[in-house]
Hints:
Largest sheet: 3 strands, antiparallel
Oligomer: single chain
Amino acid sequence: MTYLExxxxxxxxxxxxxxxxxxxxxxxxxxxxxEDCSVCCRPIQVSVSINEDGTPTLILxxxxx
Length: 65
């Protein structure tokens, strides 16, 4: 059985600039996915890498970047 390790992370939408919260799976070293902004509903490209101490580093960009 595989267990997911998740962490709540906060960042800002690259479109509207509002603060958003993302639930990040920290059981994987790196990942990329699209998530809609909870405020303006536009698609955000999310790139996640996990640091040695287990904290996620997020890079959020608009879909056309």
